[in-house]
Specification:
It is built from five helices and five strands. With 150 residues, it is an alpha+beta fold. The radius of gyration is 15 Å and the shape is globular.
């Protein structure tokens, strides 16, 4: 890979729910250099929201002393997102990936976060260690608006 065709950013913030919109907008602004469609921006903002919310609610159990880290890379026409926390981790990852499963039913969570992330992105992978945190890696190829109209 030619390093000149690669751009990256890293963002860290307190695990507070009010930072979720900050994370969405920051990733959208970073990816805007690829001239994405509105649908692509909406998809990216949605998956960032889902991953960050999971870190805050499930990973840190709303303990704002935790830190959420988002790293993003752009290589040619593809964006890679890595969203990480050092929270409690996921005990049963396969169960957590099942649609409609939630470990917090009292919060009226839909249990669709992982399903949404997997469906909106081209690649999706989650790794977790109990007591060691969770990382979500996702990739999406961006079809520039310029390419659509040429």
């Amino acid at each position: 890979m030619n390093e000149n065709n690669r751009n990256f950013m890293t963002l860290q913030f307190a695990a507070k729910s009010e930072n979720e919109s900050f994370a969405r907008v920051t990733v959208a602004a970073f990816v805007s250099q690829l001239d994405p469609t509105m649908d692509e921006i909406t998809d990216l903002k949605t998956v960032v929201s889902e991953a960050v919310t999971n870190s805050i609610i499930h990973g840190y159990e709303e303990n704002s002393e935790g830190i959420v880290t988002i790293s993003a890379w752009i290589e040619e026409d593809t964006v890679t997102l890595l969203i990480e926390d050092k929270g409690r981790g996921i005990e049963d990852l396969e169960l957590a990936k099942q649609p409609l499963f939630t470990s917090k039913p009292e919060l009226e969570r839909s249990g669709m976060g992982f399903t949404i992330m997997e469906n909106f992105m081209d690649e999706f992978d989650v790794a977790s260690e109990v007591g060691g945190g969770t990382s979500i890696r996702m990739k999406k190829r961006i079809v520039s608006k310029k390419a659509l109209y040429n």
